[in-house]
Amino acid sequence: MVKHCANPNCGKPLRYLREGRIFVFETKENDNGESIRRMEHFWLCGTCSKTLRLEMTNQGVQTVLKREVRTTTPIQHPLAS
After folding, report:
1. How far apart are CA 7 and CA 80, in angstroms?
2. What's the domain count of the chain?
3. What is the pLDDT along the chain (81 residues), one digit of tens a residue?
4. Is residue 4 part of a domain?
5. In terms of residue numbers, what domain contains 32?
């Protein structure tokens, strides 16, 4: 069960699902020589999810900075002259 923010520098406790973002990753776990696949849930709090996302790597789940999306053309109001 998810109990706190997955950002190791935060650790804010999970109280409400309406704040932040849930990530689900399929993980493989060896148990007595058998490979077991399971779904694991991770949560980033509202503050952390504004600038971070989670990715599955060879080292496990890690936080990664989001890239900013910028428009190259300014958006103009259709009635502006």
Report:
1. 44
2. 1
3. 789 999 999 989 999 888 999 999 988 777 676 778 889 999 999 999 999 999 998 888 999 999 855 545 555 555 654
4. yes
5. 1-65
